[in-house]
Amino acid sequence: MILTGINLSRPPGLADASVVAHPGALIGLIGPNGAGKTTLLRALAGLTAGPGIVTLDGTPLTALPAAVRAQRLAWLPAGREVGWPMRVDDLVALGLSRNDPPAVDAALAAVEASAFAARRFDTLSTGEAARVLLARALVAKPQVLLLDEPVANLDPFYRLAIMACLRRVADAGAAVVVALHDLDLARQSCDRLWLIDHGRIVADDAPGAVLSPARLAAVFGIAWSDGGWRQV
Amino acid sequence: MTLRLTLLAVLIGIAALALPLGPLLGAYARDPDLALTILLQLRLPRAVLALAIGGFLGLSGAAMQGLLRNPLASPDVTGASAGAALGAVLVAYTLSQTSTLALAAGAIVGAAIALAVLLALAGRGATTARLVLAGVAIAALAGALTSLALSLAPSPYAIYDILFWMMGSAADRSLVHVAIALPCIVVGSVLIVSARRGLDALTLGEEVAASLGHDVASLRLRIVAGTALGVGASVAVAGAIGFVGLVVPHLIRPRVASPGASLIPSALGGAVLLAAADLLVRVPVAGQELKLGVVTALIGAPFFLHLIVTDRQP
């Protein structure tokens, strides 16, 4: 997946950029609140007409029929509200265009949620709900997976569990782009980081290179000292 | 549940034809043709209208609640019923015509105008919130104009007729009324039911539904236009009947897997409820037959309160 000509800033005027998500890559999208992470993910998912042109294997996303796009690309928003007290397995099946119970079982197993397949979504804990919604995004085995803060509000164990699951998905050949706020988790889990600031990609590199002290101070206003993060 | 509701609807439909039994048997004893006329000309239209309108109110209520992801939504938020009432009142006011057919014609035109204004205001690409706000505004405007027309009405008898009509009733309707309402209700139902898979995806939000390949704008249009069409036709022939479209989907909700799966049971439940209420109003109170819309609201409102108080689930 390639996104070119992006410029999320308002008013526009900053340098354009282009990003590429290769199959098998687990890419962390980091940046301060309001930097444009969600906007970028929505643009990549084809949910907003502009800015930029998103291509998937050389084809503009807008030229793909909606059903084909839905099969090849999955988007998981940050919100976890579900408008109906649905059964977990029914909810995961919404990610499929046809009836396929084995695929639902496999997706639930991949996020370690098989045990509550028959429970109602509104009875789940935050961590369980997060995993079930991730299973919904995984169930159609998309080529591109776009996730907006899938580990928000989760305990450390399940943050790691979800990142491990995303690693397996990437290793199986998908391109995974995941917005994260936890910089340590991003450094330790991702192959590559896109750092976004004021609507602009300011770094696109390996985690060690992106998370340099100078850049962290400039973009996030933080520095590591005395065994913890401090404001600068 | 669907099977049981279907059986119940059939039973109530038969009861609606048969009850009260006395006049029917009396007519049969004198002249079998008279009994047949009573059945076909009086009771059949009434039973069909009660079942079809109740069914449509249940169906469209479930669809609106699913579309808006809001358990308080009802078919009335499209503004079509208020538009239909205004159309009927204007016919009564300007033409001094209060035959149910003339009122029905006015109501159909009123509902169609309300729908056209709604679609023009909200546009094809409108968000659901804008569509509903527009619907509520149309309903408020139509309600105000209805009150204005009533308060300026030259003849007190016209007001009396109109008020009675607005209370809702399936009594004394003919097969002509069925011919007016049924096609609109059928088309509206088909439009709504065609959206059932999309309704399920909408539980995850409009954008996720779009990312899953659903055309959310078309989905919204089918549900809103289908609802307005059927509700407009229902109000046209039977006046305003409240609470069925709100209460029935609520009763069905905890018993089905998804919003799409709630459509058919809600339709059956609505048919059963309205046909049963129409049986109830045949018992005369103080020498008068009660009005159907009054009975559904009288039963529906306290029952709805009971549901809210006892409901333990979100």
Précis, in short:
Chain A is of the alpha/beta class and 232 residues long. Chain A has nine helices and twelve strands. Chain A has a six-stranded mixed β-sheet, with helices on both faces. A four-stranded antiparallel β-sheet of chain A has the order 2-1-4-5, covered by helices on one side.
What do these coordinates show?
The complex is a heterodimer of chains A (232) and B (314). With 232 residues, chain A is α/β, with parallel strands linked by helices. Chain A is 34% helix and 23% strand. In chain A, the strands form three sheets. Chain A has a six-stranded mixed β-sheet, sandwiched between helices. In chain A, strands 2-1-4-5 form a four-stranded antiparallel β-sheet, covered by helices on one side. In chain A, strands 11-12 form a two-stranded antiparallel ribbon. In chain A, strand 7, helix 6 (156-171) and strand 8 (175-179) form a beta-alpha-beta unit. The longest helix of chain A has 16 residues, at 156-171. Chain B is an all-alpha fold and 314 residues long. Chain B is built from 14 helices and no strands. The two termini of chain B are 22 Å apart. Chain B is globular, with a radius of gyration of 20 Å.
Strands, helices and their partners?
The complex is a heterodimer of chains A (232) and B (314).
Chain A: E1 2-6, E2 17-20, E3 26-30, H1 37-44, E4 53-56, E5 59-60, H2 66-72, E6 73-76, H3 88-93, H4 101-110, H5 126-138, E7 144-148, H6 156-171, E8 175-179, H7 183-189, E9 192-197, E10 200-205, H8 207-210, H9 213-220, E11 222-225, E12 228-231
Parallel strand pairs in A: 3-8, 3-9, 6-7, 7-8
Antiparallel strand pairs in A: 1-2, 1-4, 4-5, 9-10, 11-12
Helix pairs in contact in A: 4-5
Chain B: H1 2-18, H2 21-30, H3 32-68, H4 80-95, H5 100-122, H6 128-152, H7 156-166, H8 175-193, H9 196-202, H10 206-211, H11 216-238, H12 244-252, H13 259-280, H14 292-310
Helix pairs in contact in B: 1-3, 1-13, 2-3, 3-8, 3-11, 3-12, 3-13, 4-5, 4-6, 4-11, 5-6, 5-11, 8-11, 9-13, 12-13, 12-14
